[in-house]
Amino acid sequence: MADLELARLTGELDARLAGADAELARRYPGPRPERQPVQTIYVPADRFAADTVTRYGEVALAALAEHEALFLELTGDDRDLLARVRARLATRPLDDLRIDFEDGYGPRPDDEEDAAVAAAADALRVAIADGTAPPWFGIRFKSLERPTRHRGLRTLATFVERLADGGPLPRGFLVTLPKVTSVDQVGAMVHAAGHLETVLGLEPGSLRFEIQVETPQSILGPDGTTLIARMVHAADGRCTGLHYGTYDYSAFLGIAAPYQSLDHPAADHAKAVMQAAAAGTGVWLSDGSTNVLPVGDADAVRRGWETHLRLVRHSLERGFYQGWDLHPAQLPTRYAATFAFYRERLDRSSVLEEPATDRALADFIRRGRECGALDEEEGS
Predict the structure, then answer these.
(1) Is the dihedral of CA 157, 159, 160, 162 positive or negative?
(2) Which residues, 6 or more positions from 195, have their beta carbon under 8 angstroms from its beta carbon?
(3) Which cofactor does it need (predicted)?
(4) Domain for residue 103, yes or no?
Protein backbone atom coordinates (compact mmCIF):
# COMPACT_ATOMS: atom_id res chain seq x y z
CA MET A 1 0.00 0.00 0.00
CA ALA A 2 1.31 3.43 -0.93
CA ASP A 3 2.38 5.72 1.89
CA LEU A 4 -0.22 8.30 0.90
CA GLU A 5 -3.01 5.73 1.00
CA LEU A 6 -1.80 4.35 4.35
CA ALA A 7 -1.65 7.87 5.80
CA ARG A 8 -5.20 8.53 4.66
CA LEU A 9 -6.45 5.27 6.22
CA THR A 10 -4.61 6.06 9.45
CA GLY A 11 -6.24 9.48 9.55
CA GLU A 12 -9.67 7.96 9.01
CA LEU A 13 -9.13 5.51 11.88
CA ASP A 14 -7.82 8.28 14.14
CA ALA A 15 -11.00 10.24 13.50
CA ARG A 16 -13.19 7.17 13.87
CA LEU A 17 -11.62 6.19 17.20
CA ALA A 18 -11.07 9.64 18.69
CA GLY A 19 -14.07 9.37 20.97
CA ALA A 20 -13.12 5.87 22.13
CA ASP A 21 -9.53 6.98 22.73
CA ALA A 22 -10.66 9.90 24.86
CA GLU A 23 -13.11 7.74 26.79
CA LEU A 24 -10.46 5.11 27.44
CA ALA A 25 -8.02 7.72 28.76
CA ARG A 26 -10.71 9.24 30.99
CA ARG A 27 -12.02 6.00 32.45
CA TYR A 28 -8.73 4.10 32.66
CA PRO A 29 -5.97 6.57 33.57
CA GLY A 30 -3.66 3.83 34.89
CA PRO A 31 -2.15 3.16 38.32
CA ARG A 32 -2.08 5.83 41.01
CA PRO A 33 1.45 7.16 41.59
CA GLU A 34 1.19 7.30 45.40
CA ARG A 35 2.05 4.48 47.80
CA GLN A 36 -0.79 2.13 48.72
CA PRO A 37 -1.22 1.20 52.40
CA VAL A 38 -0.78 -2.48 53.20
CA GLN A 39 -3.37 -2.57 55.96
CA THR A 40 -6.39 -0.78 57.37
CA ILE A 41 -7.38 -1.20 60.98
CA TYR A 42 -10.91 -0.52 62.17
CA VAL A 43 -11.45 1.02 65.60
CA PRO A 44 -14.96 1.38 67.08
CA ALA A 45 -15.70 5.09 67.37
CA ASP A 46 -16.24 5.04 71.12
CA ARG A 47 -12.80 3.44 71.61
CA PHE A 48 -10.81 5.85 69.49
CA ALA A 49 -8.55 8.37 71.21
CA ALA A 50 -5.68 10.63 70.22
CA ASP A 51 -3.17 8.02 71.40
CA THR A 52 -4.82 5.02 69.74
CA VAL A 53 -2.12 4.56 67.11
CA THR A 54 0.64 4.70 69.71
CA ARG A 55 -1.22 2.28 71.99
CA TYR A 56 -1.86 -0.15 69.14
CA GLY A 57 1.84 -0.17 68.34
CA GLU A 58 2.67 -0.86 71.97
CA VAL A 59 0.15 -3.70 72.18
CA ALA A 60 1.51 -5.24 68.98
CA LEU A 61 5.10 -5.04 70.23
CA ALA A 62 4.08 -6.54 73.57
CA ALA A 63 2.36 -9.45 71.80
CA LEU A 64 5.46 -9.99 69.68
CA ALA A 65 7.72 -9.94 72.74
CA GLU A 66 5.51 -12.32 74.71
CA HIS A 67 5.23 -14.82 71.86
CA GLU A 68 8.56 -14.27 70.09
CA ALA A 69 9.42 -17.97 70.05
CA LEU A 70 6.09 -18.80 68.40
CA PHE A 71 6.54 -15.97 65.89
CA LEU A 72 9.97 -17.31 64.92
CA GLU A 73 8.59 -20.83 64.64
CA LEU A 74 5.81 -19.69 62.32
CA THR A 75 8.13 -17.56 60.17
CA GLY A 76 10.92 -20.11 59.73
CA ASP A 77 13.23 -18.67 62.41
CA ASP A 78 13.81 -15.63 60.22
CA ARG A 79 15.43 -13.15 62.60
CA ASP A 80 15.92 -10.52 59.92
CA LEU A 81 12.16 -10.62 59.35
CA LEU A 82 11.58 -10.33 63.09
CA ALA A 83 13.81 -7.26 63.23
CA ARG A 84 12.03 -5.63 60.29
CA VAL A 85 8.61 -6.28 61.80
CA ARG A 86 9.69 -4.95 65.19
CA ALA A 87 11.13 -1.81 63.61
CA ARG A 88 7.95 -1.20 61.63
CA LEU A 89 5.76 -1.58 64.72
CA ALA A 90 7.95 0.83 66.65
CA THR A 91 8.01 3.54 63.98
CA ARG A 92 4.80 3.26 61.94
CA PRO A 93 2.50 0.62 63.41
CA LEU A 94 -0.52 1.58 61.27
CA ASP A 95 -0.74 2.44 57.60
CA ASP A 96 -4.43 3.28 57.52
CA LEU A 97 -7.14 3.70 60.16
CA ARG A 98 -10.94 3.89 60.04
CA ILE A 99 -12.92 5.20 62.97
CA ASP A 100 -15.95 2.96 62.75
CA PHE A 101 -19.50 4.25 63.19
CA GLU A 102 -21.01 1.27 61.40
CA ASP A 103 -21.00 -2.41 62.44
CA GLY A 104 -18.13 -1.97 64.88
CA TYR A 105 -20.10 0.76 66.67
CA GLY A 106 -23.69 -0.28 66.11
CA PRO A 107 -26.98 1.60 66.50
CA ARG A 108 -26.96 4.18 69.28
CA PRO A 109 -29.24 7.07 70.31
CA ASP A 110 -28.55 10.16 68.22
CA ASP A 111 -27.19 12.18 71.10
CA GLU A 112 -24.73 9.40 71.97
CA GLU A 113 -23.46 9.06 68.40
CA ASP A 114 -23.27 12.84 68.01
CA ALA A 115 -21.05 13.01 71.09
CA ALA A 116 -18.88 10.19 69.75
CA VAL A 117 -18.52 11.99 66.41
CA ALA A 118 -17.33 15.17 68.11
CA ALA A 119 -14.93 13.35 70.41
CA ALA A 120 -13.45 11.24 67.62
CA ALA A 121 -12.98 14.22 65.26
CA ASP A 122 -11.26 16.19 68.01
CA ALA A 123 -9.03 13.25 68.90
CA LEU A 124 -8.06 12.73 65.26
CA ARG A 125 -7.14 16.39 64.92
CA VAL A 126 -4.85 16.03 67.94
CA ALA A 127 -3.20 12.92 66.49
CA ILE A 128 -2.64 14.69 63.17
CA ALA A 129 -1.18 17.73 64.90
CA ASP A 130 1.25 15.74 67.05
CA GLY A 131 2.35 13.55 64.14
CA THR A 132 1.09 10.20 65.45
CA ALA A 133 -1.74 9.74 62.93
CA PRO A 134 -1.04 7.20 60.18
CA PRO A 135 -0.62 8.35 56.55
CA TRP A 136 -4.28 7.50 55.81
CA PHE A 137 -7.25 7.84 58.16
CA GLY A 138 -10.98 8.46 58.10
CA ILE A 139 -14.35 7.09 59.11
CA ARG A 140 -16.79 4.41 58.10
CA PHE A 141 -20.32 5.75 58.50
CA LYS A 142 -23.64 3.96 58.29
CA SER A 143 -24.86 3.02 54.82
CA LEU A 144 -27.13 4.91 52.44
CA GLU A 145 -29.78 2.22 52.73
CA ARG A 146 -33.09 3.77 53.81
CA PRO A 147 -33.03 2.60 57.49
CA THR A 148 -29.59 4.12 58.20
CA ARG A 149 -29.36 6.89 55.59
CA HIS A 150 -30.24 9.82 57.83
CA ARG A 151 -27.94 8.77 60.62
CA GLY A 152 -25.08 8.01 58.25
CA LEU A 153 -25.28 11.38 56.52
CA ARG A 154 -25.52 13.17 59.86
CA THR A 155 -22.35 11.46 61.09
CA LEU A 156 -20.50 12.10 57.84
CA ALA A 157 -21.42 15.78 57.66
CA THR A 158 -20.75 16.48 61.33
CA PHE A 159 -17.42 14.69 61.36
CA VAL A 160 -16.15 16.36 58.18
CA GLU A 161 -17.20 19.81 59.40
CA ARG A 162 -15.55 19.35 62.80
CA LEU A 163 -12.35 17.84 61.39
CA ALA A 164 -11.90 20.55 58.75
CA ASP A 165 -12.82 23.30 61.24
CA GLY A 166 -13.10 25.96 58.56
CA GLY A 167 -9.99 24.84 56.71
CA PRO A 168 -9.20 22.13 54.16
CA LEU A 169 -9.57 18.43 54.84
CA PRO A 170 -6.31 16.90 56.06
CA ARG A 171 -4.27 15.04 53.48
CA GLY A 172 -4.95 11.30 53.74
CA PHE A 173 -8.58 11.62 54.85
CA LEU A 174 -10.95 9.04 53.33
CA VAL A 175 -14.42 7.79 54.12
CA THR A 176 -15.83 4.31 53.62
CA LEU A 177 -19.25 3.81 52.04
CA PRO A 178 -20.55 0.45 53.30
CA LYS A 179 -23.17 -2.05 52.17
CA VAL A 180 -23.62 -0.59 48.70
CA THR A 181 -26.47 -2.22 46.80
CA SER A 182 -26.93 0.03 43.74
CA VAL A 183 -25.11 2.33 41.36
CA ASP A 184 -27.59 5.00 42.43
CA GLN A 185 -26.15 4.94 45.95
CA VAL A 186 -22.71 5.73 44.55
CA GLY A 187 -24.19 8.62 42.58
CA ALA A 188 -25.93 9.80 45.75
CA MET A 189 -22.61 9.70 47.59
CA VAL A 190 -21.00 11.82 44.87
CA HIS A 191 -23.85 14.30 45.19
CA ALA A 192 -23.54 14.39 49.00
CA ALA A 193 -19.77 14.89 48.82
CA GLY A 194 -20.11 17.78 46.38
CA HIS A 195 -22.81 19.38 48.52
CA LEU A 196 -20.69 19.17 51.66
CA GLU A 197 -17.69 20.64 49.85
CA THR A 198 -19.79 23.60 48.72
CA VAL A 199 -21.42 24.23 52.09
CA LEU A 200 -18.20 23.80 54.09
CA GLY A 201 -15.95 25.64 51.65
CA LEU A 202 -13.81 22.60 50.90
CA GLU A 203 -11.76 22.10 47.76
CA PRO A 204 -13.89 20.47 45.04
CA GLY A 205 -13.15 16.77 44.79
CA SER A 206 -11.34 16.59 48.13
CA LEU A 207 -13.94 14.41 49.85
CA ARG A 208 -13.08 10.96 48.52
CA PHE A 209 -14.45 7.57 49.44
CA GLU A 210 -14.01 3.82 49.23
CA ILE A 211 -16.76 1.46 48.16
CA GLN A 212 -17.19 -1.48 50.47
CA VAL A 213 -18.14 -4.58 48.52
CA GLU A 214 -20.15 -6.63 51.01
CA THR A 215 -23.43 -7.32 49.21
CA PRO A 216 -24.06 -9.64 46.24
CA GLN A 217 -25.93 -6.77 44.57
CA SER A 218 -22.65 -4.88 44.18
CA ILE A 219 -21.18 -7.78 42.22
CA LEU A 220 -24.17 -8.93 40.16
CA GLY A 221 -27.13 -6.70 39.32
CA PRO A 222 -30.72 -7.83 38.70
CA ASP A 223 -30.11 -7.70 34.95
CA GLY A 224 -27.04 -9.90 35.21
CA THR A 225 -24.51 -7.09 34.72
CA THR A 226 -21.48 -6.47 36.92
CA LEU A 227 -22.53 -3.45 38.93
CA ILE A 228 -19.21 -2.87 40.68
CA ALA A 229 -17.64 -1.79 37.39
CA ARG A 230 -20.42 0.75 36.87
CA MET A 231 -20.04 1.92 40.47
CA VAL A 232 -16.35 2.72 39.97
CA HIS A 233 -17.13 4.97 37.02
CA ALA A 234 -20.25 6.48 38.62
CA ALA A 235 -18.02 7.78 41.42
CA ASP A 236 -16.77 10.55 39.10
CA GLY A 237 -13.14 10.15 40.18
CA ARG A 238 -13.88 10.19 43.91
CA CYS A 239 -13.59 6.45 44.48
CA THR A 240 -10.14 5.56 45.82
CA GLY A 241 -10.65 1.89 46.64
CA LEU A 242 -12.82 -1.21 46.60
CA HIS A 243 -12.78 -2.99 49.97
CA TYR A 244 -14.09 -6.53 50.31
CA GLY A 245 -16.35 -7.19 53.32
CA THR A 246 -15.77 -10.79 54.36
CA TYR A 247 -18.59 -11.49 56.76
CA ASP A 248 -21.49 -9.49 55.38
CA TYR A 249 -20.88 -10.80 51.87
CA SER A 250 -20.63 -14.39 53.08
CA ALA A 251 -23.73 -14.06 55.21
CA PHE A 252 -25.75 -12.61 52.32
CA LEU A 253 -24.85 -15.70 50.31
CA GLY A 254 -26.00 -18.03 53.08
CA ILE A 255 -22.53 -19.38 53.86
CA ALA A 256 -22.49 -20.93 57.35
CA ALA A 257 -20.55 -19.01 59.99
CA PRO A 258 -17.71 -21.55 60.43
CA TYR A 259 -16.88 -21.28 56.72
CA GLN A 260 -17.03 -17.50 56.32
CA SER A 261 -13.49 -16.59 55.33
CA LEU A 262 -11.73 -14.35 52.87
CA ASP A 263 -10.31 -17.45 51.12
CA HIS A 264 -13.72 -19.08 50.53
CA PRO A 265 -14.35 -19.72 46.80
CA ALA A 266 -17.26 -17.26 46.88
CA ALA A 267 -14.92 -14.61 48.26
CA ASP A 268 -12.33 -15.31 45.58
CA HIS A 269 -15.02 -14.97 42.91
CA ALA A 270 -16.21 -11.60 44.24
CA LYS A 271 -12.65 -10.31 44.47
CA ALA A 272 -11.78 -11.48 40.97
CA VAL A 273 -14.71 -9.41 39.70
CA MET A 274 -13.56 -6.43 41.78
CA GLN A 275 -10.06 -6.84 40.38
CA ALA A 276 -11.27 -6.76 36.80
CA ALA A 277 -13.52 -3.77 37.48
CA ALA A 278 -10.70 -1.75 39.06
CA ALA A 279 -7.96 -2.63 36.56
CA GLY A 280 -6.50 0.46 34.95
CA THR A 281 -8.72 2.89 36.86
CA GLY A 282 -6.29 3.85 39.63
CA VAL A 283 -8.72 2.44 42.21
CA TRP A 284 -6.97 0.38 44.89
CA LEU A 285 -8.12 -3.04 46.07
CA SER A 286 -8.31 -4.17 49.67
CA ASP A 287 -9.14 -7.59 51.04
CA GLY A 288 -11.28 -8.13 54.12
CA SER A 289 -10.52 -9.26 57.65
CA THR A 290 -10.42 -12.39 59.75
CA ASN A 291 -12.11 -12.52 63.14
CA VAL A 292 -9.87 -15.37 64.31
CA LEU A 293 -7.92 -13.15 66.71
CA PRO A 294 -4.53 -13.99 68.26
CA VAL A 295 -5.62 -13.22 71.81
CA GLY A 296 -5.97 -15.39 74.89
CA ASP A 297 -3.90 -18.44 75.75
CA ALA A 298 -0.96 -19.77 73.72
CA ASP A 299 -3.17 -22.03 71.61
CA ALA A 300 -5.44 -19.12 70.67
CA VAL A 301 -2.46 -16.97 69.71
CA ARG A 302 -1.03 -19.76 67.59
CA ARG A 303 -4.37 -20.32 65.85
CA GLY A 304 -4.85 -16.60 65.25
CA TRP A 305 -1.35 -15.99 63.91
CA GLU A 306 -1.34 -19.12 61.71
CA THR A 307 -4.70 -18.13 60.24
CA HIS A 308 -3.66 -14.54 59.66
CA LEU A 309 -0.33 -15.44 58.05
CA ARG A 310 -2.08 -17.83 55.67
CA LEU A 311 -4.86 -15.42 54.72
CA VAL A 312 -2.59 -12.40 54.20
CA ARG A 313 -0.41 -14.53 51.95
CA HIS A 314 -3.52 -15.72 50.08
CA SER A 315 -4.50 -12.09 49.43
CA LEU A 316 -1.03 -11.03 48.30
CA GLU A 317 -0.67 -13.91 45.87
CA ARG A 318 -3.95 -12.88 44.24
CA GLY A 319 -2.94 -9.23 43.82
CA PHE A 320 -4.69 -7.75 46.86
CA TYR A 321 -1.92 -5.78 48.52
CA GLN A 322 -4.00 -4.26 51.30
CA GLY A 323 -6.28 -5.83 53.90
CA TRP A 324 -8.24 -5.14 57.06
CA ASP A 325 -7.08 -5.86 60.58
CA LEU A 326 -9.30 -5.88 63.63
CA HIS A 327 -6.86 -6.13 66.54
CA PRO A 328 -3.34 -4.79 67.22
CA ALA A 329 -2.05 -8.33 67.86
CA GLN A 330 -2.66 -9.02 64.15
CA LEU A 331 -0.13 -6.39 63.14
CA PRO A 332 2.98 -8.59 63.67
CA THR A 333 1.67 -11.22 61.26
CA ARG A 334 0.35 -8.61 58.82
CA TYR A 335 3.85 -7.22 58.36
CA ALA A 336 5.56 -10.62 58.61
CA ALA A 337 3.46 -12.09 55.80
CA THR A 338 3.80 -8.94 53.69
CA PHE A 339 7.56 -8.57 54.12
CA ALA A 340 8.20 -12.28 53.51
CA PHE A 341 6.09 -12.19 50.34
CA TYR A 342 8.39 -9.59 48.78
CA ARG A 343 11.68 -10.87 50.16
CA GLU A 344 11.14 -14.45 49.00
CA ARG A 345 10.66 -13.40 45.38
CA LEU A 346 13.68 -11.22 44.74
CA ASP A 347 15.40 -13.89 42.63
CA ARG A 348 14.22 -13.47 39.05
CA SER A 349 16.81 -15.69 37.37
CA SER A 350 14.24 -18.32 36.40
CA VAL A 351 11.68 -15.85 35.04
CA LEU A 352 11.42 -15.42 31.27
CA GLU A 353 12.05 -11.84 30.24
CA GLU A 354 8.85 -10.47 28.68
CA PRO A 355 7.56 -6.86 28.69
CA ALA A 356 4.44 -7.52 30.78
CA THR A 357 6.46 -9.61 33.25
CA ASP A 358 9.09 -6.87 33.49
CA ARG A 359 6.42 -4.30 34.31
CA ALA A 360 4.92 -6.58 36.94
CA LEU A 361 8.35 -7.19 38.46
CA ALA A 362 9.11 -3.47 38.59
CA ASP A 363 5.78 -2.87 40.32
CA PHE A 364 6.52 -5.75 42.71
CA ILE A 365 9.89 -4.28 43.71
CA ARG A 366 8.41 -0.79 44.09
CA ARG A 367 5.71 -2.08 46.42
CA GLY A 368 8.26 -4.05 48.40
CA ARG A 369 10.40 -0.97 48.94
CA GLU A 370 7.47 1.28 49.77
CA CYS A 371 6.14 -1.00 52.52
CA GLY A 372 9.56 -1.55 54.09
CA ALA A 373 10.07 -5.16 53.04
CA LEU A 374 13.01 -4.31 50.78
CA ASP A 375 15.88 -1.90 51.21
CA GLU A 376 16.47 0.66 48.46
CA GLU A 377 19.41 -1.22 47.00
CA GLU A 378 17.56 -4.54 46.85
CA GLY A 379 15.96 -5.64 43.61
CA SER A 380 18.03 -3.29 41.48
Answers:
(1) positive
(2) none
(3) Mg(2+)
(4) yes
- 24-27-29-33 Cα dihedral, nearest 10 degrees: -170
Clarify whether residues 276 and 366 are in a common domain. no
Answer yes or no: do 114 and 251 share one domain. yes
d(CA 286, CA 289): 10
CATH of the domain at 73: 3.20.20.60
pLDDT confidence of residue 358: 76
Query: Which tens digit of pLDDT belongs to each residue from 329-372?
Result: 999 999 999 999 999 977 654 555 667 777 888 889 999 999 99
361 shares its domain with 293: no
- In a shared domain, residues 374 and 285: no
* CA R_g for the chain: 22
123 domain-assigned? yes
Q: What is the residue type of 166? A: G
Instruction: Please tell me whether residue 343 adopts helix, strand or coil conformation.
Output: helix
Please check whether residues 187 and 205 belong to one and the same domain: yes
| Residue 39, strand partner residues | 323
In terms of Cα–Cα distance, which of 135, 110, 106, 132 is closest to 47? 106
| Whole-number Å distance between alpha carbons of 324 and 334 | 9
Q: How many residues does the chain have?
A: 380
How many Cβ atoms are within 10 Å of 225's Cβ, its own excluded?
A: 11
Between CA 325 and CA 333 the distance in angstroms is 10
Range of the domain at 196: 33-344
Q: Any idea what the Cα angle at residue 322 is, between residues 318 and 327, rounded to 5°?
A: 120
Contacting residues for 30 by C-beta, under 8 A, at least 6 apart = 280, 282
